[in-house]
Design a protein that fits this description.
With 80 residues, this protein is an all-alpha fold. Helix content is 78%, strand content 0%. The N and C termini lie far apart (44 Å).
Length: 80
């Protein structure tokens, strides 16, 4: 269980970094990594507690990181 948690954090960090470098997001590198790691942690614990999963843990980490990158910035963006 512990290696899956470490792998989830590493994969989420990579997804955050790559998404910022490719121009998918414009949050800043550190902010994107924090958002991805938070989303991956949340989904990791949902997987442990309720058995919700997309398949292998690596795929769960990637999909939850991308989902967090899409949801979090739009949620906190103010209406202009």
């Amino acid at each position: 269980m512990f290696p899956q948690l470490i792998g989830t954090v590493v994969i989420a960090g990579i997804v955050g970094y790559v998404s910022e470098k490719t121009g998918f997001t414009h949050n800043g590198i550190l902010q994107s990594i924090i958002i991805c790691v938070g989303g991956a942690f949340l989904f990791y614990f949902l997987r442990i507690m309720f058995g919700i999963s997309f398949g292998v843990p690596g795929l769960d980490a990637i999909l939850s990181s991308i989902g967090a990158l899409i949801i979090v910035p739009f949620h906190w963006r103010g209406k202009r």
